[in-house]
Amino acid sequence: MARQTFQQATVAAIAEEMRRDPDVFIMGEDIGKFGGPLHSCLGLWEEFGAEGRVIDTPISEGTFVGAGVGAAMQGKRPIVDLMFLEFLGLVVHQFGLDGGAMHYYSDGKVKVPMVVRAKYGVGPFHGHAYDFHSWLLNVPGVKVVAPSNPADAKGLMKAAIRDDNPVFFLEHMGLYHAGREEVGDGDGVIPLGQADIKRAGNDVTVVATALMVKRALAAAERLRNDGIDVEVLDLRSLVPMDEQAVLTSVRRTGRLVVACEAIKRGGSANEVVSLVAEEAFADLRAPIARVAPPSVPVPYHRELEKLYLPDHDDIADAVRRVMAA
Amino acid sequence: MPRDNQTLLDLYRLMALTRALDGAIAEIDGHWHGLEGEEAVVAGAYHGLRPGDVVAPHYRGSLTAACGRGADLRKLLAGLLGKATSYNRGRYRSDVCGPPEFNLIGLYSGALGPPLAYATGAALAIKLDGRDDVALAVFGDGTSSRGDCHEAMNMASALCLPVVFVCQNNQIAISTPASDGVAPRSVADRAVGYGMPGHEIDGNDVLAVHDTVQMAIARARRGDGPSLIDAVTYRVAGHFVSDTVEDRPPEEIERWRARDPIALFRRYLVEQGVIDDGDLGEIDQAVSAEVAAAMAQAKADPDPGPDVLGLDRVFA
Questions:
Q1: Which of A13, B15, B79, B231 is at a distance of 20 to 30 A from B95, taking alpha carbons?
Q2: What is the CATH number of the domain that holds A255?
Q3: Based on the domain organization, do A261 and A310 belong to the same domain?
């Protein structure tokens, strides 16, 4: 066991997979000697650079993600560091529309085993905060992963690298260097599509990912003093989504709150809401509540940012509303 | 460049096959993107590749690339019709996307440009694996205006990747003439900006195409990096078969029809004493019969039912 940050655990997963499988390589902007923005690739150049497996690319996001697709079609297992999620619009065609369709269109003959990783989220860095991951839920054939802590980040990154499909891996900057946690030394692969109950409770289910899990847990602690027993369900991957875990929890608690960092309109959390409305409506004892930012670009000033992004109080308020309904 | 009679006849056969396919498909598919006039580029580029080479063809000529690599004509035509006997059992169209088992990268959506990146990535994989295969990326003058084209060429050169870029320059993008869409005089001039050799060639001369592409392939195999070839030809055909909008000057089309690449090559073969007119006619007939038989079989082939297609295999 080692105590690692989210960033350290993620890089450790990549390094371990690169040691295990010579077909794994990584490319992106400034990931070589520079070590990647926010140390996203720290140490990889020193260990694998001489083998040509850590590749600095020109500022050509569409093409280096496309090159990842092309290399994956040839049997390599590329990891592409997109740097920031706000560049998603530049690569949706290559990664999603084409990369996600190849397996189906080729009747299973083409595999695209690649990972695109991207940093995002409101955090200490005051920029590149946009959370556009929900766009990808409407693209068939791609997986979307959003860990909430270092141990999950490591296990999910390993699963993403070993997966034979295009996987988008989200790295929240508000979690990236936010403290160390115990991370196992072993393989510790966490299968994609397996949610995790981060806190068991009986009164209401809060479904979240990434930073919102942390805030939901903080809200749950506060609500405990009010005698409300909150279950916090961390989806960990949006696609595939662990529908059974959501339904099992909601059927037991009878109440659902979803918390999401993407704006409420069209946000991925709505998929959870739809699922429960379709499959567990009769089990609900109260209307569903959504906690998510308004349809506004991520604002700059800290006070505006605070207003924009749901915090533990917003989540706690939503839980109280649902309990009172 | 030394070449044997067999190579010459193979090139002719591939051109004749392309022409025969063009005619046969045009009869049944109003949306077929014909390539009358461009046969020299596709035959010259797609002949003489190794199985390990990766090809991302222009959609106009994708079937020729597949045939040139040994794909089965009946299965390809079944793919055009979405039949269960096609390479992907009807999940996707074969006219723009060749079977991947022949190391073909097709269009997996309607946007042009990204396949240049996929070819570049294939070249990266080739380099990482230490193979001396190459990637061949063929695109039109229209696609040459895409940022994807610039990015792929820049990246291929910056990383010294074994890619051969061939512009199948038919001088028109649907309706926009290259003079309105391509700023430099020649697409090949752009090569200077990427630090790679650029060659502007007569795209109606199959031997010029074949020799230049093979030269660029040899360079790439040696590890000397990418090249750009601008093969200037002309789309005598419309954008697609039922394309009724045609405002190009009829005399311009006639001028290019008079430079028909197949007629030019026939004359060359006869003049060089490689083959006589009678034997060329036999090749034409054989190719037409092959296409007709494959088409008849494909038409008679079963449609895929939901039991065959299903909605599975989205994820590997």
A1: B231
A2: 3.40.50.920
A3: yes
Find chain B residues with C-beta within 8 A of A52's C-beta: 127-128
| SS3 label, residue B259 | coil
pLDDT at B1: 61
- The partner residues of A207 in beta bridges, in order of sequence, read A233, A258
Size of interface A-B (CB pairs under 8 A): 142
B27 pLDDT exceeds 80?
yes
Task: Tell me what ipTM this predicted complex has.
Answer: 0.95
B contact test, residue of A56, A61, A63 with most B CBs within 10 A: A63
Is the Cβ pair A98, B126 closer than 8 Å?
no
Q: Is residue A191 part of a domain?
A: no
H/E element holding A286? none
Which of the listed residues A183, A213, A246 is the one where a domain comes to its end? A183
Query: How close is the nearest chain A Cα to the Cα of B127, in Å?
Result: 10
Contact between chains at B122 and A103 (C-beta distance less than 8 A): no
If asked whether residues A103 and A49 sit together in one domain, one would say yes
Task: Specify whether A138 is located in the same domain as A275.
Answer: no
In a domain, A121, yes or no: yes
Strand partners, A27: A55, A80
* Residues in A touching B165 (Cβ below 8 Å): none
Domain count, chain A: 2
Chain A CB contacts of B101 under 8 Å are 109
Determine the Cα–Cα distance for residues A239 and A237; give it in Å rounded to an integer.
5
The pLDDT profile of chain A, 325 residues, written as one tens digit per residue, is 799 999 999 999 999 999 999 999 999 999 999 999 999 999 999 999 999 999 999 999 999 999 999 999 999 999 999 999 999 999 999 999 999 999 999 999 999 999 999 999 998 877 899 999 999 999 999 999 999 999 999 999 999 999 999 999 999 999 999 999 999 888 899 999 999 999 999 999 999 999 999 999 999 999 999 999 999 999 999 999 999 999 999 999 999 999 999 999 999 999 999 999 999 999 999 999 999 999 999 999 999 999 999 999 999 999 999 999 9
- Residues A203, A256, single domain; the answer is yes
Same domain for A122 and A40, yes or no, is yes
The three-class DSSP label of residue A108 is coil
Domain of A249, in residue numbers: 196-324
Contacts of A105 in chain B (CB under 8 A): 88, 91-92, 97, 108
Task: Give backbone dihedrals phi and psi of B238, rounded to 5 degrees, phi first.
Answer: -75, 180
Q: Is residue A141 part of a domain?
A: yes
Q: Of the candidates B111, B121, B316, which has its C-beta nearest A67's C-beta?
A: B121
Q: How many residues does chain A have?
A: 325
Q: Do A66 and B120 touch (CB under 8 A)?
A: yes
Backbone φ, ψ for residue B51 (5° rounding):
-55, -30
Q: Which of A103, A126, A128, A172 is the catalytic position?
A: A128
Based on the residue annotation, tell me whether A128 is a catalytic residue of this protein: yes
| Same domain (yes/no): A172, A123 | yes
For residues A3 and A184, what is the distance between their CA atoms, to the nearest angstrom? 9
Can you give the pLDDT at residue B313?
Answer: 85
Which CATH architecture does the domain made up of B5-299 adopt? 3-Layer(aba) Sandwich (3.40)
> A4-19: b or e for each residue (b if 16 or more CB lie within 10 Å)?
bbbbbbbbbbbbbbbe
Domain ranges of chain B: 5-299
Query: What is the β-pairing status of strands B135-140 and A230-234?
Result: unpaired
Same structural domain for residues A7 and A93?
yes
- Residue B3 pLDDT grade (very low, low, confident, very high; cuts 50, 70, 90): confident
- Shared domain for A144 and A218, answered yes or no, is no
